[in-house]
Amino acid sequence: MDLTIWHVLIVFLLGAILAGAVVGWFAYRRGRQERDIGEERIHKELQLQREAIAKEKAEGVAAIQQERLALNEHEIQQHEKLEAEWSRLNQESARQNQSLRDRSRSQDHKQEALDKREQELTQRTEKLDAREEDLASHKERQNQELERLAELTREQARREVVARAEAEARQEVARTIRDIEAQSQEMAEQRAREIITLAMERVAHDSVPDQAASSVSLPSDDMKARIIGRMGRNIRSLEMALGVDIIVDDTPGAIVISCFDPIRREIARLALANLVQDGRIHPARIENEVKTAEREVDRIILDSAQKAMLEVGIPGLHRELQVLLGRLNYRTSYSQNQLYHAIETAHLSAMIAEELHGDVQTARIGGLLHDIGKAVSHEVEGPHAIVGAAIARRYGINEKIANCIEAHHHEVEMASMEAVIVATADAVSGARPGARRISVERYYERIKELEDVARGYDAVKESYALQAGRELRVLVQPKDIDDKGCVELGRDIAEQIHDTLQYPGQIKVTVIRETRYVAVAS
């Protein structure tokens, strides 16, 4: 019994061991399969990660290559743009060099013409000298012949021969002078016309009408009563603070400010406009608005001067000179705004100085400041040119520019070519079409003065001013003057016009001597 139990136990144990071994073998095999599956999954995941990394790396390399290509293309485009700009600059430089060479050749041709003209004048002088020698020899022969034939004394013969030779020589000299003057005048007029025309066609400004009054619009006529105030206290405060006349009754819907000082008139206009817009009008408010308007006008004056300096190309003038220059914006002369006139004169002076190889900067500054004295003409006695030069010297302007300012109306002697250029540019700016409006009465006075100059000579029968005073035609009595005398008369009239009259540009004097012979056949 005991043996059978042991046998059963042993068999049971062996079965259990065998079952455990089978279960362990299956568990081991399943675990290995799971491990293989896991390893395979891990390997696949690693493979996928490697492929993703490789793909990202390839995409990054492609992106880098694309960026490099884009950068290379941008560099190529920039290089092409630089090459195009370089080519354009080379073409522009070549064009400018060609223009300079053409201008140099033109100047050379003009110089050759002048040299040729000088050579011709020298030859004519030599011919005149030779003719004088011939006249001397001829005079000696005439003396001998007269003494032999007429039995005259030597002194009598000498006087007769000298008178005859002098008359012939005077006629020849007058004819030669007339030819030389005509040729020289033609060349000078042509060159001057080229320079002035070139400058005028490059510069032009509008004219501004003269005004002695300004107006301020009102939202309603009730505002007039508020401006007048109780017992007229507001309008009295305005007139005392501003120094202007205020007219509130004549113009419906507006008030009129009358004053011949344009700066005070502008201050009054701004102050009144602000008061009308605000609506609060009383003496204290009026004083504040007047001060505000004064500061605003001072700012506008300085801005106007700085814009003018920037347009002309003049750096850093003294601040006081800038203020005076800006005040010219409120001054007009014959409907021409004086600041615009100063800018135009500066441009013209610089252009003419460049053509004549003068000091361009001196001419430019002199042209801009030539009328600076007009900004204080009502405060300082004396001609505005002299006053302006004194002001310029006070604020550091050199003597050469100061002479351009004080000499532009010929009140002092011109000390340089630039002074002549500034005076010429000033006359051109005032005389160009559309620059100024001259009254009919002043035009008639100028024409009459011009004609009266010629009528003052005994041999003159009549004189007429033509082409708006650009030409003076003089008719003479043929019995009272000969052809040689006409040459001298024309020169004398031109000199008197130059010395006694103020005029822009040139005046051509034409002397006409006409002799008529009438015969009647019956």
Beta-strand segment tally: 8
Instruction: Name the beta content range.
Output: 5-15%
Mean pLDDT across all amino acids = 78
Radius of gyration: 50 Å
| Main sheet record | 3 strands, antiparallel
Low-pLDDT segments, ≥5 res: 204-212
Percentage of residues assigned to helices? over 70%
Secondary-structure element order, N to C: HHEHHEEHHHEEHHHHHHEEHE
Tally of DSSP helical segments: 14
Estimate the global geometry from the Cα principal axes: elongated
User: How far apart lie the N and C ends?
Assistant: 208 Å
Strand order, sheet with most strands: 1-3-2
| Estimated structural class | mainly alpha
In short:
The chain has 522 residues and is mainly alpha-helical.
Describe the structure.
With 522 residues, the protein is mostly helical. The chain has helices spanning 2-149, 154-202, 222-228, 233-242, 262-278, 283-312, 319-327, 338-355, 360-369, 384-394, 399-406, 417-431, 440-455, 483-500, and strands at 213-217, 245-247, 254-258, 332-333, 336-337, 460-466, 471-476, 508-512. The radius of gyration is 50 Å and the shape is elongated.
Secondary structure: elements and pairs:
Layout lengths: L1 H148 L4 H49 L10 E5 L4 H7 L4 H10 L2 E3 L6 E5 L3 H17 L4 H30 L6 H9 L4 E2 L2 E2 H18 L4 H10 L14 H11 L4 H8 L10 H15 L8 H16 L4 E7 L4 E6 L6 H18 L7 E5 L10
Parallel strand pairs: 7-8
Antiparallel strand pairs: 1-3, 2-3, 4-5, 6-7
